[in-house]
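LOG
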Amino acid sequence: MNLFLLTALAMVAFAANSILNRVGLSGGDIGPAGFAMIRLASGAIVLLALLWAQGTRVAARPKPNMAAVAALTTYIVGFSFAYVSLDAGLGALLLFGGVQFTMFLGAFWSGQPIAARRWVGMAISLGGLCVLVWPSSTVTMPLGAVALMLAAALGWGIYSLIGTRVSDPLAATAWNFAYALPLAAIVCVPFVRGEPLGAQGITAAIVSGGLTSGLGYALWYRLLPRLGATTAALAQLSVPVIALGAGLILLDEPATIRAVVACALVCGGIAFALVTSKASKRV
């Protein structure tokens, strides 16, 4: 399967993961702490089982990459807690906007040349994302939730940047999940006792952890060395568009002029940034 199709598959997993988070938390069957813990635990179990099935010595634990573990923990915990009191559209804008800037600045800081058209394409896509997800009515912006979502964006951006240098994506993802679980427990356990734990919320967390997070992130780590930082950052702007398309197809949601224009801007910006001349060096 070629790089484009594999990247599209990873973006579909990310979109599905976002939907599962909202379904689990908005239904009132589970709280953010429980969701984050079950998500990490199920991801670790599935990925370590895959390593064992491949004949990898799971018992021989490698030393943790603490930067990757801390970044993954920050993303998953921050994301879960932020969405409790943050509008979904505004949360998506903060998350994906923050990821863009983190990964672009990371590439710039490491000395990678970034063509001007990539900055322009990112700006066009972010503008389209604003049109797509900005709430039509007045919403509150609780500072705590905004800070948590920005922390989640920073965590995911750093986690993705680290992934551009990974040689064994499955093993790296599996052990990152395993090591992130006790780290997340330090934050989450005090909150779990007061949270509901219903069947729908638990199911959503397990599917999110084992499938769309665990396997999706392993695939993402496999692709990152080939994509590079800025291409990977730009590709992720398609996730809200994919989520919107899923709503149109699966939930029979109506398509609006605003949504069509926004999706055109997002996809057009990505295309403008990534279509380069033969003489251009891809970053």
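LOG (cont.) second protein
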Amino acid sequence: MSMRFTAKARRGMVALTVAAGLAIGVAGCGGSGGDDKKPDSPTSASRTNGSDPSTQEGQSDQPLAELKGSDGLLLQITSAQRDTGGFVTVNGTLKNDGAQTAAIPSALSGNETEIIRNGRSLGGATLVDPQGKKRYYVLRDTEGRPLTTTGFSTLKTGATLAVFMQFPAPPTSVTEVDFQLPTFTSATVKISG
């Protein structure tokens, strides 16, 4: 009889511990504290004028590079940040500088079947280390989805879209890489971090 009581008590303690952990996790993920007002104002400003990317940690007001694409598309790379997890995150803004709504070229997704199956993306982007003579492709999750902005097909005139791409990190000695995206010009980008 005392073994049943002990087992019940243990299950109750485990359930209580799990519930407390989940409550703390949910409270930690909530984001309506008073300090959250600062990041909202640059984002709101960029939505109002439609041309300036928001300034985020590791990003400057001046883009690291501007790449011109077809149909008036312009990609401004605002940061290329090396993360401790062994990857590089490239952030930027895709803008339609053309006179009419631009259809996002399917070539931006690249030509790999696994990436194309997941819809329009920037999965065709690569980083090239010219010294090490290596090319780094966009990372994928365990289900084959590219770790990049996805799900867009058109961009209206003057509209902007914040974009990101994640790549495996080149060796720490590599501080500059060539960024390439199908249908766009290429550019040299400095990696920070």
